[in-house]
Amino acid sequence: MASAFAHAAAASALGVAAGIPFQARRVWILGIVCSILPDLDSLGFLLGLPYEHVLGHRGVTHSLPFAAVLAWMVVRGLFPQAAGSFRLRLYLYFFLCTASHGLLDAMTDGGLGVAFFAPFHNDRYFAPFRPIVVSPLEPHKFFSRRALGILRSEFIWVGLPSLGLAVLAQIWRLAMDRSRSRS
């Protein structure tokens, strides 16, 4: 899996790209939570579920249907007054934050792949390009000598692209604002 740091970086970049105002802290925090939440499935190990089980690690909680349902629940439950294009933007933001988790995990060099289509189809997939060093599931194992290699890998393959996305989104937004003000 990618670490919580990488998932939070991706969610933050998506927030900038979606034009979520920085003052909307609750939205930003929920986006980060949605990006990390799929790893709750690692509790399945404590329950004796095998890794490859649909409820196992990188199973249903890493899937696109789960991302869609979670995004709907967050918007419906926590933003009931949101309407129109803002409601759609919130939904897409929370969906992409959650879905980004599976994508990043599919780009790691470990594990059994990601069940993107669970619960309908439990086949596991990896991305064709897997440059991210896998992070251990147990937090105490993360804080070791190996952590520097993991963080370096995530900085290169998640942090820098996330920063690039955020910068490009801001440049695009500024250019669009200038274009509108000239019209």
From TrEMBL:
Transmembrane segments: 59-79, 91-118, 155-175
A Pfam short name: YdjM
Key words, A-Z: Membrane, Transmembrane, Transmembrane helix
InterPro entries referenced in this protein's UniProt entry, alphabetically: YdjM-like
Superkingdom field: Bacteria
Protein name: Inner membrane protein YbcI
